[in-house]
Amino acid sequence: MEQESTKSTQDKRYMWSQPWGYRESFLIAFSLLGIGFVLEIASGNFKISMPSWPLNLIIFVILIVYILISQHYFKNTFVKWISSTQAAIASISVFTILILMMGFTAQVPQRGLIEMFGLTHIVSSWPYFLCSFFLMMVLGFTIAKRLRSYSLKNIAFLLNHLGLWIIIAVASVGSGDLKKYRMQLVKERTVFSAIDDHGIQHRMPFALRLMEFNIDEYNPDIGLVDPNTNRLIIKKGDKLTEAKAGNGFVKNNWQIEIKTYLESAAIKNGAYVESVSIGSAPAAYLLARNLLNNSEVEGWISSGSFMSPSKFLNLDQQNVLAMTIPRSKRFSSEIRVFKQIKDYEDIVIEVNKPISISGWKIYQTGYNEQMGKWSDVSIIELVKDPWLPVIYTGIFMVLFGSLYLVWMGRTKN
Predict the structure, then answer these.
(1) What is the C-alpha to C-alpha distance for residues 82 and 71, in angstroms, rounded to an integer?
(2) What CA–CA distance (Å, rounded) separates 300 from 315?
(3) Would you give the distance in Å from CA 11 to the centre of its chain?
(4) CA distance 203 to 191
(5) pLDDT tens digit string along 294-324?
(6) CA–CA dist 20, 32 (Å, integer)
């Protein structure tokens, strides 16, 4: 009995005794996350600006050299721990938690604790910087350790881990070279400068002129609104009815039928007629019949526009029919790009279909929503990321590493 007690005492490992295990690894990882939050609060949400070229390249080289030298020539407990499985799992777990926070939190300025802890700008926050740097170090030392015993079996491991290291390292340190500007183009005006998030203007290597803005819209919907608040009455599971001739629905003992629908109309002598003039709006003529007393109400409704008011149809004191504002289906801009006064080309950009110009990606992001389809303003975003090909290289390395693992598994079987 005494021998068993002595043995159990010897097997018990105290905190921070060597070698470090999962408890120490997770404690260090979560401590870095906590320190990041403290620094974020203390700095007053000061966003971290990463160094740009060529300083970021110098940092990459120094970091790689330091990892290789430390792994091959120094055999202290820190090097052994940071290249261990425990450190890898802890660093990946905490980094994943931070990425999940970014996915569940809108990355736009907000007030309150969310903004204070940096959760509205995670990529440029202290917690992200510390956790991503910790993961970079763990991956770097792990890769360097495997390089010492290189073999064909290690190909998949090296491809996966080195690809992941490249993605994280370049996305973090290389972000200093990322440029993201905004342009507001007005029809028939040539714009030479773009604006960054701080409102500073930047002269571009090309000029843009909006020639035409086009927008396709879905048909608006028709439904009942609360006469006191003018808000749509939609219960769980309900669907609004598309404004289209022949459609109909039953709601609150009223049977409504859409007799006429005009996609673009203007009011004339109390009725709506087709019109393509600026500010015209969708309109529909409705016939409503009360299923309890067979009374009927008919008339026009319209969603209105920036030039004409919306129009409702009162059925009774509790029920009012209204038309929603049409939602955009697709919008695009016809733009003339000037590289020189007489050297220009015409392009068309639309949402999710960017165009590349002189190393810049041009994205269609918005327009004057108040004017809708009559907007003479197009808002575009200009993005330049010289490190993007390197990130793609890392992604392909991870992909090839995964395919190699599958191939190796099949050959063994």
Answers:
(1) 10
(2) 12
(3) 50
(4) 10
(5) 999 999 999 999 888 999 999 988 889 999 9
(6) 17
One-letter identity of residue 207 = A
Structure tokens at 194: 């773009």
Q: Model's pTM, two decimal places?
A: 0.74
* CB 313, CB 299: distance < 8 Å: yes
Q: Are 281 and 326 in contact (CB under 8 A)?
A: no
Non-local CB neighbours of 394 within 8 Å, separated by 6+ positions = 162, 163, 164, 165, 166, 167, 170
Q: Percent of the chain at pLDDT above 70?
A: 94
**Residue listed under structure tokens 């003018």:** 230
Numbered ranges of CATH 2.60.98.10 in the chain? 181-216+329-384
Coil, strand or helix: which one is 85?
helix
Q: By percentage, how much of the chain surpasses pLDDT 90? A: 51
Give the residue carrying structure tokens 């001739």.
Answer: 245
Give the CA dihedral 270, 273, 279, 284, nearest 10 degrees: 80
pLDDT at 116 over 90: no
**CB atoms inside a 10 Å sphere around CB 338:** 16
**Taking residues 51-56, what's their average pLDDT?**
85
pLDDT for 362: 94
Instruction: Give the contacts of 64 (CB within 8 A, at least 6 positions apart).
Output: 140
- Residue owning tokens 């190393």: 359
Span 181-216+329-384 CATH architecture: Sandwich (2.60)
CA dist., res. 90 & res. 96, Å (int): 10
Read off the pLDDT band of 75 (50, 70, 90): confident
Nearest one of 180, 208, 412, 223 to 315, comparing CA atoms: 223
Helix-helix angle 155-173:55-73, to 10 degrees: 140
